[in-house]
Amino acid sequence: MILEALASRRSARSFEPGRPIPRELLERVLEAARLAPSALNLQPISFVVCTRPETKRALRAAAFDQQKIEDASAVVVLAADLELAARARRRPELSCFEPERLAEWTELARMAYDGRPDRCRDEAFRSGGLSAMALLLAAEGAGLASAPVGGFDAERVARAVGLPPARLPVLLVALGYPGAKPRLTPRPPRASDGVRWESWSG
Ligand SMILES: Cc1cc2nc3c(=O)[nH]c(=O)nc-3n(C[C@H](O)[C@H](O)[C@H](O)COP(=O)(O)O)c2cc1C
């Protein structure tokens, strides 16, 4: 089932402009992103769902004028929290440990992320990537076309949707109805291609 969705999903090259996605369907697709895994369960990704024409126009301008951003029914900005140690302190209910190990979880987050913006940024892209994939698969399951878009100016995207400081846009996911059937992009012919067992040299 999941493999089928993976096999049929392709990035939309264009969308049918001006056709809204029913709110309920959009919310169902976003539910998938809510369920995605994240390091220490810190759930650092927020989703800014943009459907207004003026916002999509601003996002298009921030994304090297990619037309599909404006034509999509909705563009989801995946924005990561870059202050993960503070997040663990602020949101104890997120602990992935049993309640009696909360202090241990907070301490782990402190050790891993306090004063380590590089690690927070790495985590932003790892967790953001998984959330984006969840969104793409949910969209496929809901019969919607989708496209991940990483070609954008982060500062302009942040401005377009009013992100607070310490929130980094890691990816846009455009959702809508296909304008044209996307070409099936090539993949390695066999599952074993590109896979190495046990070590790089095998
Ligand atoms: C991180 C990332 C960034 C991407 N950025 C863009 C983009 O800015 N514009 C675009 O048209 N496609 C973008 N894509 C889509 C890729 O071109 C596409 O996934 C790839 O060619 C494989 O095709 P498929 O998704 O149809 O299987 C991006 C994909 C990923 C994973």
Could you describe the 3D structure shown?
The chain is an alpha+beta fold and 202 residues long. It has one domain: NADH Oxidase (3-Layer(aba) Sandwich). Helices cover 43% and strands 14% of the residues. It has eight helices and four strands. It has helices at 2-8, 23-34, 53-62, 67-71, 84-90, 102-113, 117-141, 154-161; strands at residues 45-50, 74-81, 145-149, 167-176. A four-stranded antiparallel β-sheet has the order 1-2-4-3, with helices on both faces. It is globular and about 50 Å long. Bound molecules: flavin mononucleotide.
CATH topology, what is it called?
A: NADH Oxidase
Count of alpha/pi helices: 8
What is the straight-line distance between the termini?
A: 31 Å
Can you give the mean pLDDT?
95
- At the fourth CATH level, what is the homologous superfamily? NADH Oxidase
Q: Please list the strands of the largest sheet in the order they lie side by side.
A: 1-2-4-3
Q: Please summarize the sheet with the most strands.
A: 4 strands, antiparallel
Determine the structural class based on helices, strands and strand pairing: alpha+beta
> Radius of gyration from the CA trace?
18 Å
Which descriptor suits the 3D outline? globular
Q: Could you tell me which ligands this complex binds, including any ions or cofactors?
A: flavin mononucleotide
> What is the succession of H and E elements?
HHEHHEHHHEHE
Percentage of β-strand residues: 5-15%
Q: What is the CATH C-level name?
A: Alpha Beta
> How many beta strands in the DSSP annotation?
4
Low-confidence stretches: none
CATH architecture: 3-Layer(aba) Sandwich
Helix proportion range: 40-55%
Overall domain count: 1
